[in-house]
Write a structure and sequence with these properties.
heterodimer, A: mainly alpha, Ferritin, 68% helix, B: alpha/beta, 2 domains, 4-stranded mixed sheet, 3-stranded mixed sheet, 29% helix, binds zinc ion
């Protein structure tokens, strides 16, 4: 394929949103309150909408009868390019919110850069998605403060979730060879700039939430290269079941 | 391109989530072109994941077919849709339907983040209202409640 690197870059962008969207969709009907249930599934829907745009474009590049569905549902685990943080389970509401907040803090400045991509389609998707991502960040930031600065139990659980998830954050900032190539071509984002913005948001919200940044070392994980956590197999079996059992089925 | 019967047909297509509102008032139709005998309608999604878009596409084709036109619906992403494209008439219809129309950006932020009492209750008209949930029955709406008449209502969030 001529645009192999661009194709893989699109997978990276799409897979993060898809796996996180899938995690959030697991909460449909299980949210701690009606309002949060609706909010989280709405965020999930936004993310899936963004994924469709990325994968429709990726399918065009790939040709060979590839479709957004074949890309979403018919790859093996090693071919998914998402970061490990979005695979982490919905342990409790604090984990759901911290995972969302850390991702949103990265997602907004990422899209801010991609809006100016030399690639017109990526720029258009980013310009559309950023409006949604800003709402997500607003929602997750508010909950970070409410939980962190809430009761003793909510504070303690949120700090525990932060301790667990924070080490995974660094993979999002860590530039893979594909991301480097895309940045140099003016197509992809400069992750060092994304990192600065993301950390500034995190520091500000964490302080207001009376939480503290864990001192643990960043985890060296390689989801972007297709090396996933033990959770990924379970996610994919859920996600792919319908297309594997009933190939080419449509709603 | 100003073919009267084509435009008339497009005005009859409504948002499936808000049946009183034409997609023309919604600002979803961006362009109408002719390719020989084929009508090409360019539409833009309100939100990326909006499940109404597929239905809207089908409804457009159906409405045009009834007028004797074959058509194709093209989804365009740029420029991204904004609530500024909802017409004055559309805003009125939203309010009549029970959905408070989007305010301009600064007021929207003040209402959604700082909890300022700015959104007008669609039942009694009071602005003594509060946000219950930033996300409502669909991604484009927030859920509010009126402190005067106690009734809940949707607010169409500003998207810029
Ligand atoms: Zn009222």
């Amino acid at each position: 394929m001529k645009d192999q690197s661009l194709y893989e870059y699109l997978l990276m962008l799409g897979d993060n949103s898809m796996i996180l969207g899938h995690r959030l969709s697991e909460l449909c009907g299980h949210g701690p309150s009606l309002e949060t249930d609706i909010a989280l599934t709405n965020i999930s829907l936004d993310l899936f909408g963004q994924v469709r745009s990325y994968f429709q474009y990726a399918a065009e590049l790939k040709g060979d009868e590839a479709t957004e569905d074949s890309i979403a549902f018919l790859r093996f685990d090693r071919d998914y390019r998402n970061s490990i943080i979005v695979e982490q389970p919905n342990t409790d509401f604090a984990h759901v919110i911290v995972r969302q907040f850390l991702f949103d803090s990265y997602h907004v400045p990422l899209l801010e850069q991609l809006m100016h991509s030399e690639d017109e389609t990526i720029a258009a998707i980013a310009a559309k998605s950023i409006k949604e991502a800003k709402y997500h960040l607003r929602f997750s930031s508010e909950w970070m403060k409410r939980l962190g600065d809430g009761t003793e139990e909510s504070h303690q659980r949120t700090q525990a979730a932060l301790n667990h998830l924070y080490p995974y954050l660094h993979e999002l900032y860590h530039e893979s060879p594909i991301e480097k190539e895309m940045k140099e071509q003016g197509i992809g984002a400069d992750l060092s700039v994304v990192k600065d913005h993301s950390l500034a948001t995190i520091n500000e919200v964490i302080a207001e939430a009376t939480l503290s940044i864990p001192e643990s070392e960043p985890r060296m994980v390689r989801g972007k290269q297709g090396i996933h956590s033990e959770h990924m197999g379970f996610i994919l079996s859920d996600l792919q079941f319908m297309q594997r059992a009933y190939p080419n089925m449509q709603w | 391109m100003e073919n009267e019967s084509i435009m008339k047909a497009l005005w009859t297509v409504t948002d499936p989530e808000i049946p009183v509102l034409s997609i023309m008032d919604m600002g979803v139709v961006r362009q109408v072109d002719m390719e020989n005998d084929l009508v090409v309608v360019s539409i833009t999604p309100t939100y990326s994941g909006c499940p109404a878009m597929d239905t809207i596409g089908d409804d457009i084709k159906k409405a045009l077919k009834e007028e004797g036109y074959q058509s194709r619906v093209k989804l365009v992403l740029a420029p991204a849709w904004t609530t500024d494209w909802i017409t004055e008439r559309g805003r009125k219809k939203l309010a009549e339907y029970g959905i408070a129309p989007p305010m301009e950006e600064a007021a929207d932020k003040a209402a959604l983040i700082d909890g300022e009492r700015l959104v007008k209750c669609t039942h009694c008209g009071s602005t003594n209202t509060r946000m219950i949930s930033q996300f409502g029955s669909t991604a484009c709406k927030a859920l509010f409640q009126c402190n005067e008449c106690d009734e809940p209502f949707d607010y169409f969030k500003c998207l810029k």
